[in-house]
Amino acid sequence: MRKLNVPEKYNGKKLTKFILDSFPHLSPNMLYKALRQKDIKIDGTRTNKDCTIYGGSEILIYITDDLLCPTVNLDIIFEDENIFIINKPACLEVTGEDSLTSIVHTKYSNSSFLPMPCHRLDRNTTGLVLFAKNEDSLNILLDKFKNHEISKKYLALVYGIPKVKKARLESFLFKDNKKSLVYISDEFKIGYLKIITSYSVLEEYDNNSALLEVEIETGRTHQIRAHLAHIGHPIIGDGKYGINSVNKDFGFKFQQLKAYNLKFEFKTDSGILNYLNGQSFKI
Q1: H/E run at residue 138
Q2: CATH 3.30.2350.10 domain span(s) along the chain
Q3: For a Cys staple, 124 with which of 148, 180, 205, 254, CB 3.0–4.6 Å?
Q4: What would the CATH number be for the domain defined by 154-259?
Q5: Whether 122 is catalytic
Q6: Secondary structure E strands in 102-224
Q7: Of 230, 229, 197, residue with least CA distance to 215
Q8: Which of these is catalytic: 98, 122, 176, 206?
Q9: Residue 184's closest CA among 155, 153, 219, 224?
């Protein structure tokens, strides 16, 4: 059994949308079967209908965990005594309940130090996540990310073919926490923070799509997704900033964005991690 509290952004939304968003691996057929069997409660009352829900309501779901949250096998592409790098799948937060970190903690439960992530990716962005296996490594890597001494490159499949094949975009971003959305402006506004996103076109396809390599100099929420959508080239599969009809035509449920390259570019001493300087990891 799982208990969920409905956040305000789902106020007035359908029950099935909230549950399927919360458990992306759950099949709609299994959800509707649970409804027919009255295996879902809203504020203590069993329901067999896809009804409207409201912020603050309590949802109890009597579906087994193996259907709600199937076991994820860790795809570790590199590991030594100080770090490991995981290729994260879609439908998985980096931190929180039932997250990549909680899976890691289960795997390394007998360790004296529970490995911790050094950065994050969006739930449905796939790719490389760096974990530290001891406190010294964690402190060093957090400092290196802060000082831009570790670079990340992404691959993004976007709709439309950019006329400018290589660009460094500068705009401003506002985060709306209530709606879990960000907004982009080319002019500064109060509450907006500067963002810098660079891209290069790697491939152009006949179906009016293009593969971009993307780097960010600022790490804001949803920055790549929102910034590319702002210039008219949304990431295919992106349900927040993309085009629903395009996503449906291409058949992608999640944004086609992958953190595919991680490079250590230390400018200062990095203690026990000096051996990583200059190393690059790709998928």
Answers
A1: helix 135-146
A2: 154-259
A3: 254
A4: 3.30.2350.10
A5: yes
A6: 116-117, 126-132, 150-159, 166-176, 181-185, 193-205, 209-216
A7: 197
A8: 122
A9: 224
φ/ψ region of 220 (left if φ > 0, alpha if ψ in -120 to 50, else beta) reads beta
Percent of the residues in the chain that have a pLDDT greater than 90, as a whole number: 83
> For the segment 127-171, what is each residue's pLDDT rounded down to a tens digit?
999 999 999 999 999 999 999 999 999 999 999 999 999 999 999
Is the pLDDT assigned to residue 72 strictly greater than 80? no
Q: What is the pTM of this model?
A: 0.79
Enumerate the CATH 3.10.290.10 domain ranges in the chain, comma separated.
2-68
**For residue 70, what pLDDT is reported?**
64
Mean pLDDT of 120-133: 96
Residue 216 has pLDDT above 70, yes or no: yes
| Residues 2-68, CATH architecture | Roll (3.10)
Distance CA 5, CA 22 (A): 11
131, β-bridge pairs: 84, 117
Six token digits for residue 15: 């029950």
